[in-house]
Amino acid sequence: SQELEQSPQSLIVQEGKNLTINCTSSKTLYGLYWYKQKYGEGLIFLMMLQKGGEEKSHEKITAKLDEKKQQSSLHITASQPSHAGTYLCGADTGNQFYFGTGTSLTVIP
Amino acid sequence: DAGVIQSPRHEVTEMGQEVTLRCKPISGHDYLFWYRQTMMRGLELLIYFNNNVPIDDSGMPEDRFSAKMPNASFSTLKIQPSEPRDSAVYFCASSTTVRVGDNEQFFGPGTRLTVL
Predict the structure, then answer these.
(1) Which residues contact B1 (CB under 8 A, 6 or more apart)?
(2) Segment B65-90, tens digit of pLDDT
(3) B43 → closest Cβ in A45, A48, A88
(4) CB–CB of B99 and A92 under 8 A?
């Protein structure tokens, strides 16, 4: 959706490399959510960020929400083939919920 | 628990035909959501129910789409008549909260619909 821009659209990295996916909103966010989706499957919730400047980590995945609460980044350290999939951000603008268009990640062993 | 169950997993139909997608939410979840995912538009929320009552259907694209939840364990999304542009993956999700994105929301595997 135009309300939520995700970049890059696709990413191919060598196993062990770090990578970052960005999600930018045109509106102030009440909540920013990251999901992972494997082809043909539903979404798996990864993390939720609500406060400006907030940062959360789970295993090798770190997500941050900027101070103005309009941009978030998802960082994967030392990527593995198991990280492959499509990563989507979702944003709660207070009266509506939007999803980004997704970033397709391929990790080459 | 088996999680959210959707059927069929794949549906191929001809333009003009009626299509019915089915969803069984996780037992005890009060909220049920229907989403549509396409390459062009990404993931879109179509409608959600709370305690079997439709709360927000502003995402339903047009009158050809209708959704029902006759009881707490079953919901349907119907398209009549179907059109090629309806081709997409339709996801059902259930939750104990309306806060989309909270970790209580669980997605089904989706129904891949192709309208020829």
Answers:
(1) B26, B27
(2) 999 999 999 999 999 999 999 999 89
(3) A88
(4) yes
